[in-house]
Amino acid sequence: MTMDRSTSASGDAATVGVVGGGIFGTTAAIRLAEAGYDVHLYEKADDVLSATSWSNQFRLHRGYHYPRSTLTARQCRNAERAFEEEYPEAVVGSGSHYYCIAAEDSKTTGSEFVSFCEEVGLEYEYETPAVVDPDPIDLSVRVPERRIDPVRLKERCRSRLAGADVDLYLDHRVDDVAALDHDYVVVATYAHLNSVLPPDSSLRRSYRFELCEKPVVELPPAFAETSVVVMDGPFMCVDPYGRTDRFLLDNVVHAVHDSMQGREPDFDDEYDPLLNRGVIEDPAPTAFDTFVAHGSTFFPGVTDADHLGSMFTIRTVLPDVEETDARPTLVEQDGNTFVVLSGKIPSAVTAADELRRRMRADE
Ligand SMILES: Cc1cc2nc3c(=O)[nH]c(=O)nc-3n(C[C@H](O)[C@H](O)[C@H](O)COP(=O)(O)OP(=O)(O)OC[C@H]3O[C@@H](n4cnc5c(N)ncnc54)[C@H](O)[C@@H]3O)c2cc1C
User: Fold this and answer.
1) Percent of the chain with pLDDT over 70
2) Nearest residue CA, atom 53 of ligand 1?
3) Is residue 176 part of a domain?
4) Which of 25, 135, 179, 260 is deepest in the core (most CB within 10 A)?
5) Helix/strand/coil for 207
6) Lowest-confidence segment of 99-103, 205-209, 234-238 by average pLDDT
7) CA of 21 to the centre of ligand 1 (A)
8) What distance in angstroms lies between residue 306's CA and the mean position of ligand 1's atoms?
């Protein structure tokens, strides 16, 4: 539904080119089109939400994961409701969610975690899930966090794009946004933000890139509908995979096959056929056995995991955030060009609204 019309100097609707059809670019395209802009969305793959937005842990972060960055925690908490209103079918409310603090080597103690929850206004109750060995755990709390169903999210994005009248160009790689003829350009290409910006753009910057593996597994029935994060540092988590009976494993250390800092990701060619291709059965490079060996310290039942395959993608974060583990979503602007660095998925809607606000302020 068009609510009003944002116009260019000629009196026509101002045009916006959005580059990158992940959850951030797609949401920006939808909401800007609904606000009256003439929006063109360019995606180099043959579908929207096919890169990192299709290969992640699908946790609808409320903030619990970030006790060392209250900025990130607050951003998640503030963004959650808007995300749910935009994509209600994609939010899975069933299941039990737990956060545990490891007794050793954690960067946050149990009491610090409780203080953090109180400070940010995050609800919790003391409870240890049956699948967790309580011995290596300092604290375990049950929390009202939820997860994302990637299939429903993609379906909803496709239908919202069509309904909002966005001009969608799939299989369309943009090499340089300077060649696009639009009143505004939004760059939402996540691991490739710099590659589409002109060499002299003030928006170019260094990032830290991590090549991540995300194993998809079947687990014993005791894990059904149970999501557990062990924190805070070199630990792991187990989450149901959308509305399937499968699970996603994560491990802060062992999920990362390689990492680097720079303008563009540059990893071994052997990963090219694996990256952002969905679940790869029996991948040659895999850290699955290490996930299990390490994870069994906290989740004894994980030794019975059946490895169905792994997803591979590139995480893109600000450099030098190891101390805080911050994952902020940033909207930066140089003239009529905007760059969106995504932190966590719920902030896709608030980032889109920030873009709309800044474009309005320019008119
Ligand atoms: C391992 C891992 C786990 C995560 N877990 C969670 C989680 O549980 N919850 C959460 O909220 N967040 C999580 N995140 C973060 C979240 O997944 C990302 O922030 C988010 O999905 C990125 O969305 P995006 O739209 O910015 O990028 P993407 O989904 O990567 O989309 C960018 C798009 O740009 C396209 N593109 C690139 N270059 C060009 C070009 N030149 N021309 C045209 N198109 C181009 C790509 O094909 C791609 O489709 C996780 C991230 C990782 C890596």
Assistant:
1) 98
2) 315
3) yes
4) 25
5) strand
6) 234-238
7) 9
8) 27
